[in-house]
């Protein structure tokens, strides 16, 4: 099989549940439209995210992107609460503030979103086979649970595990590739944080997750992979940058993938 785009996952509010879409537009910044468009902040201007607040894992949300609404399920609540992201933002902030027990605000950046890596704000890339392989390292964890923990944007199928490690080179060098008619530059393997160590629904930590992951990642690292980006082996998926020529183009499920020499 040839590599092809199998899944597109967007995370409209940073650190909350994602939404799977059939196609998505590329912004001038290189980010995907609606991805991490919103983020929750505390009164000090710090992100309220999974790195700092494990309680966020317990929130369940659904998005209607066309209608600009978020359906929020609070733990212990009897029903979902629906908010318009633009017209009812203050009510949503009040509900979230009550849940976290401190004041929060919801900020919007429709130009680039709120990526972890502002130097490479393009979509993160991983392969389906990689997620399957990583799931095999952790008894009791499904492929979908690993997918939810890694939170990559675009998933490539028709390739072996760790195929996406071809999309970066030695430090400082970018790798050119194309998905459909959208041009990309692969930058580096994504450094993971504490979030993948926790259950994506309950927030409960998996014992020794990071140690097991790093040991297995090093043991299974293909011998053709550029080694200089690995100052440690707790890295998975690839951060990307997109040239301005890709702005306004569309990524769509089924698009073929080509890597340029």
Short description:
With 261 residues, the protein is of the alpha+beta class.
Write the topology of this structure.
Layout: E1 4-10, E2 19-21, E3 23-25, E4 38-42, E5 60-64, E6 69-73, E7 81-84, H1 89-100, E8 104-108, E9 125-127, H2 128-136, H3 143-150, E10 154-157, E11 175-179, E12 182-191, H4 209-220, E13 235-241, E14 250-252, E15 257-259
Mind explaining what this structure looks like?
- The protein has 4 helices and 15 strands.
- With 261 residues, it is an alpha+beta fold.
- The chain has a 4-stranded mixed β-sheet. A 4-stranded antiparallel β-sheet has the order 13-12-11-15, with no helix packed on it.
- It starts with a strand and ends with a strand.
- 36% of the residues are buried.
Name the helix and strand elements from N-terminus to C-terminus, one letter apiece: EEEEEEEHEEHHEEEHEEE
- Evaluate the radius of gyration: 18 Å
Low confidence ranges: none
Oligomer: single chain
User: What is the total domain count?
Assistant: 2
**Structural class, judged by helices and strands?**
alpha+beta
User: How is the CATH topology of the largest domain named?
Assistant: M1 Pyruvate Kinase, Domain 3
The first-to-last residue Cα distance is 20 Å
Q: Which CATH class of the largest domain applies here?
A: Mainly Beta
GO molecular function, one term: molybdenum ion binding
Pfam families: MOSC, MOSC_N
Domain MOSC: 89-260
InterPro entries: MoCF_Sase_C, MOCOS_middle
